[in-house]
Design a protein that fits this description.
heterodimer, A: mainly alpha, 2 helices, about 0% strand, elongated, B: mainly alpha, two-stranded antiparallel sheet, 9 helices, about 70% helix
């Protein structure tokens, strides 16, 4: 496997993990907020969706910067 | 049918044929003998020292398969070897000052690696020996690999890339050596989440500090808080601030993903290996051991490649997207110093 192909492979392993971590953090933060305010599923759902959206944007940023850098070399 | 006498080449081939066949046959016999030996040891071990429950004594009753599996599993929390302030860590997320089995194994791996590298490079700058040649070849391969990804900007960070790769690779492989993970004081370092978090935090510190150092405080902070975008209107500024905050969050997610990927893969591999070893004879675990050997190599390379890429991304300003990079600054710096040197010589 060429170095560049390996870098793409490493990047694609990162995508799922970034989405997982941001969604999990969003859902956990929402759960904590729900426990404080007493609005049980409201903030969990909005945290989950917000985390997923932020994860998607973060992945887009990561991929575009990564690919731009690799194409530069 | 031809009645011509055989040529010289054909005669050699005829002589080489039986010799090669004999070599293949003896290699096959050796492999069969080794497999038979391993199975014999396995059967003798089951007869004379049958599996016993974790924490129990040999001879205690052990039901197949649950007890067999439990006996060969490692818990996520490592064994504490020395705790200067006493006590014992409870749960996974606790702060407890201690020397764990994974730390001790990591020190052993680092020590052996350092010793091997010192011994291999003892020849000095003169005519290198065979081992030094191997070491230099391996380093050059890693150097070429790193620079082909990150360009010249990556060159100063190749020693870090190579260190991460070698340390993680041998830490992963340490888990495949039989006593590691089977005795209390030895455990594959990267199968402990504390070690992988430590490694990821080192990577995080390097790419943040290098980004700050190379870009300067203003450009570094502008990556996350692009307030200058408000000059193009409030909406553009708000969007840029949102994207900057996502970028800031992504920076903090990176050590998490780096550490979790390494820990998950190595720990998962060890659990799979433990379960297969508990449930089958020795032949199948050996095949899985070969697979783990390769996967551990890939995981070490993924961690070091991503660390290097993050450093190169961190030292690039956002102007990079329009074609202006810190990399350019790296390339122009030696040229500028040459010009200064030339001017000084002219004076």
């Amino acid at each position: 496997m060429s170095p560049r192909a390996f870098a793409y492979f490493a990047l694609f392993t990162e995508i799922g993990l970034v989405l997982f971590v941001t969604t999990l953090v969003g859902a956990l933060a929402g759960h904590w907020l729900d426990l404080q305010v007493g609005t049980n599923p409201l903030f969990v759902i909005s945290g989950f969706l917000g985390g997923a959206c932020i994860g998607a944007i973060a992945i887009h940023r990561l991929i575009s910067r990564f690919l731009a850098m690799l194409e530069d070399r | 049918m031809s009645s011509e006498p055989p040529t010289g080449d054909m005669t050699e081939a005829n002589h080489a044929g039986p010799a090669a066949a004999q070599r293949r046959s003896s290699a096959r016999t050796l492999v069969i003998a080794l497999v038979a030996l391993v199975i014999a040891i396995d059967v003798l071990a089951i007869l004379f020292v049958p599996p016993f429950p974790a924490g129990g004594k040999p001879g205690d009753a052990c039901d197949f398969p649950v007890c067999f599996i439990k006996g060969s599993l490692e818990l996520p929390a490592p064994h504490v070897l020395w705790a200067p302030f006493g006590g014992h860590p409870e749960g996974l997320l606790t702060f407890h000052v201690s020397v764990s089995s994974s730390m001790f194994t990591m020190w052993l791996v680092s020590g052996v690696l350092l010793l091997a590298i010192i011994l291999m490079s003892r020849g000095g700058p003169g005519v290198p020996g065979r081992l030094q040649n191997v070491l230099e070849w391996a380093y050059e391969k890693l150097h070429d690999f790193g620079t082909s990804l990150g360009g010249r900007a990556a060159a100063p960070y190749i020693p870090l890339f190579a260190s991460f790769f070698l340390l993680i690779l041998f830490s992963n492989w340490a888990g495949l050596v039989p006593p590691v993970g089977r005795v209390e004081f030895l455990r594959a370092p990267t199968s402990d989440v504390n070690v992988t978090i430590g490694l990821a935090l080192i990577s995080f510190a390097v790419f943040e500090i290098e980004g700050f150092r190379r870009l300067g405080a203003r450009a570094y902070l502008a990556k996350f808080f692009p307030v200058q975008e408000f000059r193009n209107g409030i909406a553009a500024g708000a969007i840029a601030m949102f994207v900057g905050l996502v970028e800031l969050m992504l920076d903090f997610v990176r050590p998490l993903t780096l550490s979790m990927r390494l820990f998950g893969n190595i720990y998962g591999g060890e659990v799979a290996l433990g379960v297969i070893t508990a449930l089958t004879l020795a032949v199948l675990p050996v095949a899985l051991l070969g697979l783990e050997f390769m996967l551990n190599f890939i995981q070490a390379l993924i961690f070091s490649v991503l660390s290097l890429m993050y450093i190169v991304l961190a030292i690039e300003s956002h102007g990079h997207e329009e074609g202006e990079t810190a990399h350019g600054a790296v390339e122009t710096a030696p040229r500028a110093s040459h010009q200064q040197a030339g001017a000084a010589a002219a004076h």
